[in-house]
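Issue: ligand-bound run for calcium ion - logging full I/O for the record.

Environment: standard queue, default settings, no custom constraints.

Inputs:
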Amino acid sequence: AKGDGKRRWRRYEASVHTAIVERLELRAALARAVSERTFTLDYQPIVVMGSGAILGFEALVRWRHPTLGFVPPAEFVAIAEETGLIEAIGDWVLHEAVRAVAGWRQVRAGRATPYVSVNVSAHQLRAPAFVDKVSAALTAAGVDPSGVMLEITESSLLRDDDRAWAELAALRRIGVRVAIDDFGTGFSSLSYLQRMPVDVLKIDRSFTSTISGSPRQRALVEAIVGLAGTLGLEVIAEGVESRVERDLLGDLGCPYGQGYLFSRPLAAAAATALLSGPTAV
Ligand code: C2E
Ligand code: CA
Ligand code: CA
Ligand code: CA
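Outputs:
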């Protein structure tokens, strides 16, 4: 059924390029979805590269259009950003993700405590009182700030630094961690990186997926890992799809990973089941 949805969407996408009317319809449908809260979240494990032990999950938003089926987030998040709907969607994602982590921490009581990593768009950071929203969500669910990491893309961090950086610094002061998403695809200078209010670099999938074929890519990843170490940042490799990639990344000193090799994004119940299962640490 999921495959059908994707095919329907592809067909739709092919016909939509110049069809402004249909784009407006999609916007309207998205606005309805926001008021009716018809989104869901999938959760993809973030693991220790060697053992596969689960450290946390990245929350990934999903939207099933009533007739078009599953619309990829890369598509509707872009529309939501243009229209400002991303703020309401982002608020929902934040609350839902924090609620999920509260549940996981109950399942895992007394053992290691997983976190949830939430994608945040530049619009959300710019909105007033973002810090208050995050702490309100944490308080409502009774979750410690260490239960949440926020992912900001490298490019949006570079775009509006002052305002966004101040918000992120304030979040880190209360104990929320911040990751640079898609690292390596923007153009952070070394002096910027040193000052950025972040804890974690997520190495973009474009590096992971070329690492096995190219010594140059390996050298780049090694340089990123070294840089992260120097700056005291944690590194997570995105898009790990094969054992070869996992092993190369491990050899280059990258301790954490995420990708189809470990697990596809999972529905909430499956993520919880994974945490309570025998393979969880
Ligand atoms: P992202 O933040 O870089 O998320 C990682 C994307 O890579 C996800 O796609 C995930 O399903 C996919 N992925 C994970 N492992 C692998 C792998 O091994 N191979 C390959 N080929 N892909 C892998 P998804 O779920 O389609 O999300 C796409 C983008 O949509 C995300 O990229 C993020 O930028 C955005 N997005 C998703 N959820 C949210 C959200 O709640 N808020 C915001 N603002 N953006 C979101
Ligand atoms: Ca992300
Ligand atoms: Ca990413
Ligand atoms: Ca991405």
